[in-house]
């Protein structure tokens, strides 16, 4: 392991409440912003060109990443309350888990720089073996069922069942797997 990779590993691991075995950070270390409790499982691969952020007005936003997970480049995980990425999940590049929007809906509050409101945030759960193709966005209060695949460029606004292929804006079930 070269010195740059070792430093990235040490710094990232210091931000985690778990100490995963065989954590592979490629292309550097993910940017970590805000108050965020991070747990990572063994055999996980995370692009250093990713961002993990916790909503500052939530007491303890938590990001749980299971074992044998791949998180692709330029992925953003914005944790409103909780994001759970279960074992064997694959997230291609440019995915966005949007647990909070960062801005309020009200245009006057937004113009005045106020924070988003509690009714705009929520948990996101990716159950075992989920595959998010490139550019998928997942909104708050969504659970994606086991073995489900979400097609490239889709926006998931409502929970999806297990064992389906979903696509579109908003994502809809295309067929059973």
Task: Name some characteristics of this structure.
177 residues; 8-stranded mixed beta sheet; 10% helix
Topology:
Blueprint: H1 3-14, E1 24-26, E2 31-33, E3 37-40, E4 45-47, E5 51-54, E6 62-65, E7 70-71, E8 76-79, E9 82-85, E10 90-91, E11 96-98, H2 107-111, E12 124-126, E13 131-132, E14 137-138, E15 142-144, E16 149-150, E17 155-156, E18 164-167, E19 172-176
Parallel strand pairs: 1-4, 2-5, 3-6, 4-7, 5-8, 6-9, 7-10, 8-11, 9-12, 10-13, 11-14, 12-15, 13-16, 14-17, 16-18
Antiparallel strand pairs: 18-19
Protein architecture, described:
The protein has 177 residues and is mainly β. Helix content is 10%, strand content 33%. Strands 1-4-7-10-13-16-18-19 form an eight-stranded mixed beta sheet. The protein has a six-stranded parallel beta sheet with strand order 2-5-8-11-14-17, with no helix packed on it. A five-stranded parallel beta sheet has the order 3-6-9-12-15, with no helix packed on it. A hairpin with a 4-residue loop joins strand 18 and strand 19 (172-176). The mean pLDDT is 94.
């Amino acid at each position: 392991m070269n010195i740059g990779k070792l430093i990235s590993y040490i710094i990232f691991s210091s931000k985690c409440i778990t100490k995963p075995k065989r954590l592979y950070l490629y292309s550097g270390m993910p940017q970590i912003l805000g108050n965020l409790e991070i747990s990572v499982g063994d055999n996980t691969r995370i692009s250093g060109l990713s961002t993990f952020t916790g909503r500052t007005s939530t007491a303890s936003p938590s990001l749980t990443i299971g074992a044998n997970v791949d998180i692709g480049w330029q992925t953003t995980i914005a944790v409103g309350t909780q994001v759970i990425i279960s074992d064997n999940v694959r997230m291609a590049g440019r995915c966005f888990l949007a647990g909070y929007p960062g801005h309020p809906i009200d245009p006057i509050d937004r113009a005045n720089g106020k924070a988003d409101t509690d009714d705009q945030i929520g948990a996101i759960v990716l159950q075992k073996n989920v595959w998010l193709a490139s550019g998928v966005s997942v909104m708050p209060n969504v659970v994606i069922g086991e073995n489900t695949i979400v097609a490239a460029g889709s926006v998931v606004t409502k929970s999806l069942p297990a064992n389906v292929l979903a696509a579109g804006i908003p994502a809809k079930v295309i067929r059973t797997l």
